[in-house]
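Q: Convert this sequence to structure tokens.
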Amino acid sequence: MTTTKDTRTPSGARQGSAEEVGTPDRRRRPVRLDRVGLYGLLGIAAVTALFPLFWMLSGSLQTLPELLANESFLPTDPQWGNYVTAWVQGDLGTYLRNSVIYTACAVVGILLVSSLAGYALARLDFAGKGAFTVVLLAVMIIPAPAMFLAQYKLLISLGLTNSPVGYVLVLITSGIPMSTLIMRSFFAGQPKDLEEAAALDGAGPLTIFARIILPLARPGLAAVAVIQGLAAWNEYLMALVIFDDNALMPVQRGLTAFTSAETPQQQVLLAATAISIVPVVIFYLMAQRHIVQGIGAGAIK
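A:
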């Protein structure tokens, strides 16, 4: 006959093994060298990417002799007045407002046109579909400055020189080819079952596109918005060609106010640059979830 030893605590309660009471067996996982190497590389990449930003912020708080001496990375006496000088002398308030308006209008126009065109290329069968795709690829190869003359002559004929409308139209047309191909790849990866079911329920093509297709392609829209928004925000050469009035210039015009060789103000230029990237950082923080989804979906495709 087998006897079972009854182990009790001083209070009379029976003690059981870890298996009896359901306590998980916590074992220390071995350190994987491949993960250590991966995290190390990611850390180095992050430091490399963020170091210019830290240097810009540090330099924007230094005096010009301290910045040129380059003896210390951190400012000994932070000069917050550099930001006031950059804002006032560079008239950054006006230029930032212009850039926000131009970028927002350009992104909305690009998303509207490229989503419709991308959906047509992904779902519709029409004559010249392949040739149209080749034309989009060919337009992407042409450098933007090479098209300035043709675009400017077209704006003259339309009476849109020195006009924000003409500048926004140029930004939209410049971003449509790449954005259309990106949206085409996202639409082509979506199943047709939902569209067919909606069509059987009596939904029209525009209803299907607006209520079913676009929500599914939200990561693609976010990716296009980031790419084209950054391109529109950094554009400056075409603005020099179109605008005669400084009050209509984008934010990059305000940065050139501190690049004079006679009166160098590199520390104020760094402060103005820091101010100019604030809207971009805010946009990234607001759309980061959709950006990650868009990058992941694009990688899977």
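The CA atoms of residues 51 and 57 lie 10 Å apart.
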